[in-house]
Amino acid sequence: MTAGTAASQNAAKVKPLVAFEVEVDRVQSLSPHFKRITFSSEQLRNFGSDAEGNTLDLRIKVMVPSPGHPLPDFAELMETHDSNWYQTWLRMDPESRGYMRTYTVREARPEAAEIDVDFVLHPPAAGVAAGPAASWAEQASVGEPMVLIGPNGLAGPCLGIEFKPGNARRVLLVGDETAVPAIAAILENLDAEVTGEVIIEVPEAADFQDLKAPAGVKIQWLSRAGAGAPASHGELLDAAVRATILPGSQHGPVELEEVDVDAEILWETPDAAHPPIAPSGPESEAHRLYAWIAGEAAVIRELRRYLVREVGMDRGQVAFMGYWRMGKAESS
Ligand SMILES: Cc1cc2nc3c(=O)[nH]c(=O)nc-3n(C[C@H](O)[C@H](O)[C@H](O)COP(=O)(O)OP(=O)(O)OC[C@H]3O[C@@H](n4cnc5c(N)ncnc54)[C@H](O)[C@@H]3O)c2cc1C
């Protein structure tokens, strides 16, 4: 075997996704519905990021133990079963294998071997329990072992980041409470000259956060608790987006294929099927708008209908992401 072949075989063995065995280092209550959990582990020194060292809206999997059971050995599972590890895990006893939930890295500090994840403490609703991840976060204590599945920094720039504004210098960021960690991390990384609008709906005014953002980015916080009767999930967000981005204000209405959020995941990000429309006329590169929209799937579906059908948003410049579904647990 030549040295070159050995090197390329070693490179091929560097997995892009790995299990980080971590422990809860700190627990901080940010507001009534947000808890920041700092995980630490020497392994996190190799936590991945994009080519600039940022994590933006990077998603990871948080493995939550089933009550009374330790988590399976994910490092071994992923090592032994390679790309089939997820199917192998699914075949384990559902009573004891734990739960896999998707979260955003609020901040990664590989130099300090730490990661922050901001958990929304969503309440039980209409007889449905709060969910294993939110329940776990509610009572998390320092020293608890956990497993995070995330990008391997040794494998180069990571996958799992959807915020891709390209050359756009104007942004629209829209989300509910589950999107706050991603929006906060995105805003911290925007260039100072970027302008735009951020619209965020959270359960109550005490959940508003002081976010660091460029001076030209306006942040609008909406509280569902409000003054009168509580608003339904997404009601204020939908109204605020319609008031901010007017019908026909982009490229003009287009036909749209529907997404059944009960049957499939609403996850539409720019791809080859929807390349960005080349700027023309009064719209220059500098005025090109990029939108990033995430939250409860049915709410995002309505915003997608409005922004594509009525506003004429360039589908090559918008990411629509259903982060969770009302009344449905994340699948595993
Ligand atoms: C890419 C991505 C990034 C995400 N980042 C974050 C993040 O940083 N922080 C965060 O808190 N969440 C985040 N989420 C959302 C999170 O994955 C879901 O809220 C998840 O369902 C929580 O798991 P659970 O075990 O608590 O509830 P599940 O077991 O999945 O659900 C149990 C019940 O709770 C309901 N439910 C779930 N989430 C909520 C909610 N937020 N409000 C009200 N009811 C809810 C469900 O509809 C269901 O009825 C992200 C999701 C995605 C896809």
Uncertain segments: 1-9
The CATH class label of the largest domain is Alpha Beta
Named once each, the bound ligands are: flavin-adenine dinucleotide
Cα Rg? 21 Å
What are the secondary-structure elements, in order, as H or E?
Answer: HEEEHHEEEHEEHEEHEEHE
Alpha plus pi helix count? 7
- Tell me the helix content: 10-25%
Shape verdict: globular
Helix/strand-derived category reads: alpha/beta
Protein name: FAD-binding FR-type domain-containing protein
Organism: Psychromicrobium lacuslunae
Domain FAD-binding FR-type: 17-158
GO molecular function, one term: oxidoreductase activity
Structural overview:
- By secondary structure, this protein is of the alpha/beta class.
- The chain folds into two domains: 16-155, Elongation Factor Tu (Ef-tu), domain 3, CATH 2.40.30.10; 170-324, Nucleotide-binding domain of ferredoxin-NADP reductase (FNR) module (Rossmann fold), CATH 3.40.50.80.
- It contains seven helices and 13 strands.
- The chain has helices at 3-13, 74-81, 85-90, 132-139, 180-189, 235-244, 297-311; strands spanning 17-31, 34-40, 59-64, 99-104, 107-109, 114-120, 145-151, 170-175, 195-202, 217-223, 267-268, 289-296, 318-324.
- A seven-stranded antiparallel beta sheet has the order 4-3-7-1-2-6-5. It has a six-stranded mixed beta sheet with strand order 10-9-8-12-13-11.
- A hairpin with a 4-residue loop joins strand 5 and strand 6 (114-120).
- Helix 6 runs parallel beside helix 7 (297-311).
- The chain is globular.
- The termini are far apart.
- Residues 1-9 have low confidence and may be disordered.
- Bound molecules: flavin-adenine dinucleotide (FAD).
- Flavin-adenine dinucleotide binds next to strand 4, strand 6, helix 4 and strand 13.
